[in-house]
User: What shape does this take?
Amino acid sequence: MTGPIRAMDPPDELPGPIQGGAAPTAAAGTTELTRLFQQHNASLVQLLRARLRSDEEAWDVAQEAYVRMLQLDRIGTISYLRTYLFRTAFNIATDRLRSGQVRRESHRDPMFDPGVEERSPDRFAVASEALHAVEAALAGLPANVRETFLLYRFGELEVVEIARRLGVSDRMVRYYVQQAMSACRAAMEGEGQ
Assistant: This one.
């Protein structure tokens, strides 16, 4: 999505001036976060848009960065809030870019190409054997690797959502997906011999 940058709506969780002009009722950390939002949100979203090439993704990442900062126990103890906010947002953006890259690579993998050239009894038999080999390979994987792969490939969930559901890091989700794909690929190659 391209077009002019518009101001992001403030996070729902932020109390204070952003949501109607009332004075903040939370700790000084929330006041600092409100000030940070008012002074730097436009530049944060603009930088994220340049990195992600999407207004919607930029707004989502900025929103998530503010939410993460709200979850900190003591915002006031961070000496460089702006730097921390921007670093958090860039880390989230990097995770999203990596997630998209893994998804694109898995969809380009010829093993998962849904196209069928012809329907013949021979091709059906070969495909059936290959399917059984892949099923056996997936059944032989640890449960967490298998579940991650199935959620990613067939549930079409984002890496971040899978990580949240399974209680693991984004990096671990990518590792599990690659591990499962390697097992399936090895099973397919074994069937072709």
